[in-house]
Amino acid sequence: MPVNKNQHFVPKCYMKPFTSGGAGKAISLLNIDQERFIDNAPVKSQCSSDYFYGTDDKLEQAIQHIERSYAAAVKEILQDGYELTDLHATILKTFWLLQTSRTEAAAKEAEEQMQALSKDLELPPEYGLKIKEAVQLRMKIFAENTRCVNDLKVCLLKNKSNKTFITSDNPAVMTNQWHLSKPKSSVMGFGLQSAGVIAILPLSPYVCMLAYDSDIHKIESKNGWFKVKKDRDVEAINQFQFLECDKNIYFSSSECKDSMMSSLQKFSSARPPCKYEFNYAYLESQTETHKIYKASPLQEAKSHETMFVHSKRVSPKPLFWPSFIKKKALARVYTNDTGAGYVRFHWIPNHNIHEYREEKA
Q: CA 328 to CA 212: how far, in whole Å?
């Protein structure tokens, strides 16, 4: 079936599946657990359940405003001759941030993480986090952090290759090429404030948003666009959907199923068996101004009166990176030697700027 280049992933509920026209149409789906294709999967059945809606009317109104703004922005972006505006760049980044909090996959991850921690610490059942509570908690965190991506530079990837972009049930990807390439990257994770952050959000089979830390990376874009001509670069972007999805991959019907299955088999080995891990420490000593914790196994930490728990999200390391993401010759990062690691300059509080030092990335 021919593909309309103005088709787009529907910004409805927690995912944006490929459609052949709009809401209510069918999509092509690959379930990674069963390694099974489902043709003509209805969009309606793929949307989020009622538990994604909280009781905060102001938050709900804000979410609806973001979704409407995103839908209008994408409609313009997909028109011929479009040039990226600052307003649309902000809308795309905000919607990406919303998606990192609102997908069912993200909620399940938060729920499972709290259940695992409660089990480790032998906490009563009421300390657990149900999926509805997890969603509402993450949405409140989103509402408090909408400005945290303001400094990221946005580039629209225009797909000129023989392959199409795909999406999934967990489409908003955060990765970090600089962090994951560091030998000590396994010790501490990275977050929104980290130096080197890269945000990925497919908008259509032929357009993908990529936001990045411009203090470390550069992309040779023009009017907000970069033309991706290499099949391998599109595959590099698509692999993150395989690495981060929960169960389902959505794709254009123009894609070969054999190719999709081959990609699944190729990238499955890079999917982490668990998306989080805990590190424990106990209070070893303290002064009037500092507390010193010593890392230890769980059982040893539990034997002390005071213990510290560090939760880390395990981010998958891709098999290869897009060739068009270049590192700046004068790339810089900032740190104050705390557990926050290396952060972007944007994140340094003005009153604490003297505590940070600049390093060459």
A: 12
pLDDT of 145 > 80? The answer is no
Instruction: Please state the pTM of the whole predicted model.
Output: 0.83
* pLDDT at residue number 49: 46
Does residue 198 sit in the same domain as residue 306? no
User: In this structure, is residue 212 part of a structural domain?
Assistant: yes
Instruction: Report yes or no: 211 and 152 within 8 Å, Cβ to Cβ.
Output: yes
Helices (H), 187-340: 231-244, 257-267, 298-302
Top-ranked range on mean pLDDT: pick from 27-31, 46-50, 187-191, 203-207: 203-207
Averaged over 61-90, what is the pLDDT? Answer: 94
- The rounded distance, in Å, linking the Cα atoms of 239 and 202 is 12
Within this chain, do residues 87 and 139 fall inside the same structural domain, yes or no? yes
The residue range of the domain holding 290 is 276-313
How far are the Cα atoms of 33, 141, 221, 246, 308 from residue 96, in angstroms, in the given order? 26, 14, 20, 17, 32
CA 152 – CA 212 distance, rounded (Å)? 5
pLDDT of residue 186: 53
Say yes or no: 35 and 104 in one domain.
yes
- Rounded CA-CA distance 233/263 in Å is 13
Task: Tell me how many domains the chain contains.
Answer: 2
Does 19 map to a domain? no
Same domain, 118 and 175: yes
The encoded tokens of residue 25 equal: 């149409």
Query: Could you tell me the maximum CA-CA distance found in the chain, to the nearest angstrom?
Result: 71
For 282, residues 6+ apart whose C-beta sits below 8 A from its C-beta are 293, 294, 296, 300, 301, 303, 304, 306, 307, 308
Q: What is the mean pLDDT of the chain?
A: 83
Percentage with pLDDT > 90 across the chain = 48
Beta bridge partners of 208: 157, 202
- Helix or strand run (H / E) with residue 251: strand 248-251
Classify residue 5: in a domain, yes or no. no
